[in-house]
Amino acid sequence: MQNYLNDNVALQNTIATMEVERKKVAAEQTKGFTFIGIGVGVAIIGLLFGLLFWAVLAGLIPVVYGGIILYRINDALKAYQQAYKQNIIGEALKFLDPSLTISPKEGISSDEFRYTQLFNKSIDRYKTEDLVSGKADKTSFYFAEVHAEHKTERQTNKGTETSWSDIFKGIIFVADFNKHLSSVTIVKPKDLGNAIGSWFSKNVFSFSDRDVIQLENPDFSRAFVTYGSNQIESRYILTPSMMERILYLNANSEATISLSFIESRMYIAFPLDRNCFDAPIFESLLNPATLNTDINTIRFMYDIVKELDLNTRIWGKA
Question: Which run of H or E residues covers position 93?
Fold first, then answer.
């Protein structure tokens, strides 16, 4: 990471400029939260002494003042966050490959998310952002952060209780597969357990046991269950070399991935428990480690084309 910064003068200058803005935002946020903390502390102490009215009054003043500070800094915070993605992440992308671009407010539509056939559970809340697109040699690709949730409601003595569960949170990666497929092939994690895996295949992938593709790579079969609507085409896609490459990609991912091959596209779902490309507030931008995670994520996604050998054109599109 340090070498990466040393080689990129434009990025160094951008980081130095934005570090000034980060410090301003951080200082104001610290001030606001400090006053809110003081107000809460004063109120608690007053309540302990039985001074309810005076405790609330004395505590409310610094809380309100702290809230005003945070409200006033909100526009500057949003501008800083937007500039971080456009200027720092955007510059890092261009340094890696001039074709790469980021659109912070765009993403992968919920319709395309459903189209992957990786997650068929009804979506009740959906958010996507940070669309990165580009071309690695002959292969076009794009990826974005996605957070899809399912709502469950149940009646209790106190009324309707609503709970939310994640359908998926992470990155959806899409690449040109350079062949128009007539069938659908799904590769899903096998480590869900037999009972859960059975439910998963029926409710998520819309395939049954008769659609399981028997493959000759025992390591791949231990890690994944493969479903396909055309046995011959699924095996044609999942060559011995492709299976080894998917295993390597999975071993270097934070969690077990899922894949689908539909028409002329390959979809890969990378589960993550964090948001990517979020601007740090209380960590210095001058510390190379601050950007390390985001830049590594970019490089990892970019290298998928190479790792899966997608630039080797063994087929022509029909």
Answer: helix 90-96
